[in-house]
Design brief:
single chain; eight-stranded mixed beta sheet; alpha/beta; 15 strands; Rossmann fold
Length: 410
């Protein structure tokens, strides 16, 4: 064990303990040198505590051990592969001062990432620890997703802020060759430790734990399929695609009663309510519905659209990106026919996403929809652009089915 400190005094509000778990002793010397050169505050205002992970117990467990050794209430976590830039500590403390009691989490700006990413490196207050179960990084994780959990839990209680001017250069092997994927860079440039903690086995373990704990805390985060407002800056294109569909439907909902079936986190219900007299939102995900109830006004209910649904009728039912998630959408479509005047839906074409139960080409989609409506007004969507007509190579098919074209089913 090696411990480097520039100062050890009694706890003081604006003093910071910088903890660095070490697996590359040579590299951490450059990190410490950069800290001292670029802190922007007197050396008496911080301490640096390092410990080598000789047994390779991983960052979460190492951070816990190091935090237990700190003297100050504010703790900064840095990797031994980071190079802090000018005034990084001064600016991160300033960001922490946005919390009246200096009791939040400050995400630092990794130059290779963006503000919407989980704070891989951060400044945090020990006052958060009782709310987090006594540890910043949950020690059940091996290496990945621990920062995601910390971010979402602090954000959920209003204790997260991003410090855009507290910059770090992350000397991570995954950034060496831009034309290679993250894992290809790890395989080519990573040392054995990187290859171990970024292995598929570790990833699956940490991902499963993350999903389990998010459900435990009733938290929700964006995925390749689920849109979470405030958590989509990394996927602006997807968010804009979804918003465009709701804006398209908005004109059909003026002074109408509306159901958004598979409403997700409820942002679409909130948008449609601008013109509708009533909008309900149903979704199979309890986490998504709880998020919607916290964030928006409206009636949100948990329903599995493939099972028996309430006998409630609407002027308009919208359901975007839904039936591709169903092994058999016929029960849902049959219910829709009897419970609305206008049905507006969208389906991605030729998309074999891991989230989809079925892949629809245009012919298969027309075949199933024409079981219930004799005529469908088709539009196509490419990014935010929605235009009349449909082609087999369109990215998204949007259909409008109206009561005059219903086929009657017993």
């Amino acid at each position: 064990m090696s411990v480097f400190t520039t100062l050890k005094l009694n706890t003081f509000m604006n003093k910071v303990s910088i903890v660095i778990p070490v697996i590359r002793p040579k590299q951490v010397k450059q990190t410490i040198k950069a800290i001292k050169a670029n802190a922007g505050v007197p050396a008496s205002n911080y301490e640096i505590i390092t410990m080598e992970d000789n047994k390779r117990i991983g960052a979460p467990k190492m951070v816990k051990k190091l935090v237990d050794m700190t003297n100050y209430d504010l703790v900064m976590f840095l990797g031994d592969d980071t190079l802090p830039k000018k005034n990084f500590l001064k600016n991160s403390i300033k960001a922490m001062e946005s919390f009246q009691n200096l009791d939040g989490l400050v995400g630092l700006n990794d130059l290779n990432k963006k503000s919407w990413n989980a704070p891989t490196h951060w400044l945090a207050s020990k006052k958060l620890l009782p709310k987090l179960g006594g540890e910043f990084f949950h020690t059940g994780y091996i290496h990945q997703f621990c920062d995601n959990e910390l971010y979402f839990r602090c954000k959920d209680i209003g204790k997260y802020v991003f410090a855009a001017n507290a910059q770090l250069e992350h000397k991570h092997p995954a950034y060496k060759e831009k034309e290679l994927t993250f894992n290809e860079n790890i395989d080519k440039h990573g040392d054995p430790d990187y290859k171990r903690v970024y292995s598929l086995e570790v990833y699956k373990h940490d991902e499963e734990l993350f999903i389990k704990r998010m459900k435990q805390f009733k938290l929700i985060c964006a995925t390749g399929e689920r849109v979470v407002p405030g958590d989509m800056k990394g996927d602006v294109k997807t968010f804009q695609e979804h918003l465009s569909r709701y804006n398209f439907a908005l004109g059909f909902c003026t002074n109408k009663t509306v159901l958004d079936a598979a409403c997700g986190t409820g942002y679409g219900v909130n948008l449609l309510a601008e013109s509708a007299t009533l909008v309900d939102g149903w979704d199979i995900s309890e986490e998504a519905i709880n998020f919607a109830k916290r964030k928006y006004q409206g009636n949100f209910e948990v329903h599995d659209l493939t099972k028996k649904l309430p006998d409630k009728k609407y002027n308009v039912i919208t359901s975007f990106e839904t039936i591709e998630h169903m092994e058999n959408p016929n029960n849902f479509l049959k219910w829709v026919v009897g419970h609305c005047d206008t049905f507006i839906f969208s389906v991605p074409l030729n998309n074999s996403s891991k989230y989809h139960a079925k892949v629809y080409n245009l012919g298969a989609l027309e075949s199933i929809m024409l079981k219930y409506w004799s005529d469908i007004k088709w539009s196509n969507q490419e990014w935010i652009n929605i235009a009349p007509g449909i082609m087999p190579r369109s990215a998204f098919a949007i259909g409008i089915c109206e009561k005059d074209n219903k086929l009657r089913h017993s």
